[in-house]
UniProtKB/TrEMBL annotation:
Belongs to the phosphohexose mutase family. It comes from the Bacteria. Residues 41-178, 203-306, 319-443 form the Alpha-D-phosphohexomutase alpha/beta/alpha domain. Pfam families: PGM_PMM_I, PGM_PMM_II, PGM_PMM_III, PGM_PMM_IV. One of its GO terms (molecular function) is phosphoglucomutase activity. Its EC number is 5.4.2.2. This is phosphoglucomutase (alpha-D-glucose-1,6-bisphosphate-dependent). It comes from Fructobacillus evanidus.
Length: 567
């Protein structure tokens, strides 16, 4: 079926008024882009631009994917239907509407639904699936994407994002639907139960256990002054409760960004990875001479931070720096109170810094590397619980996602918020700043610096162009990057590592379209097409004996790789 055939079907369908109006206004090029494919359902569900078409997020596509999920649950039996699905949503446009549509489709199948009446964070959705022993969860969010986007994330019974087999079942189910405009919905929502306070309280009770040193908080928590911004999203309601129950009360909320607004009017992107998203909070902090700034993204699964320096300016920390500081604080505290297990492990992604890994190693703690996507960290947690070979201590991704305790099985900015405030109290008691603590760790373990560069491949041919570029790199052996020899090449698609002598070994991770190059000085480079956006991501991680040397390496490696990518 051509995109023109699909377009014609939509033109004849009884669409909501807003989609009908938009459809009439599309140019021929816009029609092709909106209908040339179904919006891909990938590692974390669907995410994309809101609007009319199969390559967009709208009520029709939400209905279609929910019907496919319902068919998968039907096939899994009555127990799965009774266990049901938990649904939550964020502050984006149409999020509540999409959550209600999903509820009605599931209810039409007789599947139990637990739905929040108002917006909640992604980590609370993950926790709730586990707490209620539900079969699945749906989170309506586009996380940190721009305002024009929305998304549909699906979770399995363990509270982690769906495993590949279940994802494929949903993809197959979408293809099996003959008429997406005739999917039944139960307007009475007979199987839907609204859940709010009980799950909030259960989640907050678990978050309360995050604190490592309650005596420290009682001593320093009231004096610690910081600024918190939820970036117009879900973090404020639960985040404030979590901070207050831990003992932190001397904070200021960024008033303008506490307003729930899917237009995110105060930022270009509601993404704590972007230093610009913290600008308004830093202005607040300067006026109040606050010790730090913390920010959560719209669905509160990512946390960013900036810390005050001696001259009164603020340094925005990277996700890898935040993770390194957290790992050091946690492990030092556990060692001090003699609760550090002999088989302790942290889990991180193959494109995250080695900084936290080196810190963990100094405490005798192992690091296990998984593919990008927090569901792989969740799967490793489940493996630890089953095999008892390791004790989970911390998980993170470089993209500002952290998980302290696995009562949620996805990155959790609410947990991170509490632990980061506690770390600030720890450094304050020592008469140090975060910058002082970070410098100490660099001097002990090496100066680590990382950068991620995204190359856009939009439009109909974008995915083909990315695929061709990855093929080019696989066919052309990379010998050097900057002035460094490539010692080993890891191709996660073939699950092989080949060193300079030609020796080959198998990689333990599942297959994935990722290339990683290990350099002679311990630095590394990785190439990975995004699973949710039409972007090719270049990851660079360097290690050096000084900050200046690390910065120089980073610039050199980026220039080399950008030249090769654009050649």
């Amino acid at each position: 079926m051509t995109y023109q055939d699909t377009l014609a079907r939509w033109q004849q369908a009884d669409l909501p008024a807003d989609l009908t109006a938009e459809l009439k206004q599309l140019s021929p090029a816009e029609q092709e882009d909106a209908f040339y494919q179904n919006l891909p359902f990938g590692t974390a569900g669907m995410r994309g631009q809101m609007g009319v078409g199969t390559n967009r997020i709208n009520v029709v596509m939400v209905t279609l994917v929910t019907e496919a999920l319902a068919a998968y649950i039907d096939q899994s039996g009555d127990a799965a239907k009774k266990a049901g699905v938990v649904i939550a949503f964020d502050s984006r446009h149409h999020s509540k509407e999409f959550a209600q549509v999903a509820s009605r489709v599931l209810s039409a199948h007789g599947i139990k639904v637990y739905r929040f009446s108002s917006l909640r964070p992604t980590p609370e959705l993950s926790f709730s699936v586990r707490h209620l022993k539900a079969f699945a969860g749906i989170m309506i969010t586009a996380s940190h994407n721009p305002k024009q986007d929305n998304g549909y994330k699906v979770y399995g019974a363990d509270g982690g994002q769906m495993v590949p087999e279940a994802v494929q079942a949903v993809i197959d189910g979408m293809a099996a639907v003959e008429n997406e405009f005739a999917i039944a919905q139960d307007e009475t929502e007979k199987t839907v139960q609204v859940v709010d306070d009980d799950l909030d309280n259960a989640y907050l009770a678990e978050v309360k256990t995050i604190s490592v040193d309650q005596d420290l908080i009682q001593k320093e928590g009231a004096d610690l002054k910081f600024v918190y911004t939820p970036l117009h999203g879900t973090g404020q309601y639960i985040g404030e409760k979590a901070l207050q129950q831990a003992g932190f009360t001397n904070y200021t909320i960024v008033k303008e960004q506490a307003e729930l607004d899917g237009d995110f009017p105060t930022v270009k992107k509601p993404n704590p990875e972007d230093p610009a998203a913290l600008s308004l909070a830093i202005e607040y902090a300067k006026k109040e001479e606050a010790d730090l700034v913390v920010a959560t993204d719209p669905d509160a699964d990512r946390m960013g931070a900036a810390v005050r320096l001696a001259d009164g300016s603020y340094q925005v920390l990277s996700g890898n720096q935040i993770a390194g500081l957290m790992v050091n604080y946690l492990l030092a505290a556990k060692k001090k109170n003699q609760t550090l297990p002999e088989n302790g492990a942290i889990v991180t992604s193959i494109v995250s810094s080695r900084f936290a890994s080196e810190i963990a190693k100094s405490y005798g703690v192992a690091t296990l590397d998984v593919l990008t996507g927090f569901k792989y960290i969740a799967a490793m947690i489940d493996r630890f619980e089953e095999k008892k070979d390791y004790t989970y201590l911390f998980g993170f991704e470089e993209s500002f996602g952290y998980l302290v305790k696995p009562f949620a099985h996805d990155k959790d900015a609410i947990q991170a918020l509490v632990l980061f405030a506690e770390m600030a109290a720890y450094y304050k008691e020592k008469g140090q700043s975060f910058a002082d603590g970070l410098k100490e760790l660099y001097e002990q373990h090496g100066y680590f610096e990382e950068k991620t560069v995204a190359f856009d491949f939009p439009g109909v041919n974008g995915h083909e162009e990315m695929a061709a570029l990855m093929t080019k790199f696989r066919n052309q052996k990379l010998e050097t990057v900057g002035d460094q020899l490539v010692l080993a090449t890891q191709d996660f698609a073939s699950q092989t590592q080949i060193d300079r002598a030609g020796s080959e070994k198998k990689l333990p991770q599942p297959k994935a379209n990722v290339l990683k190059y290990w350099l002679a000085d311990g630095s590394w480079i990785a190439l990975r097409p995004s699973g949710t956006e039409p972007k090719l991501k270049l990851y660079i991680g360097v290690v050096a004996d000084s900050q200046a040397e690390a910065d120089a390496k980073l610039q050199s490696f980026e220039a080399t790789m950008e030249e090769k990518i654009k050649a």
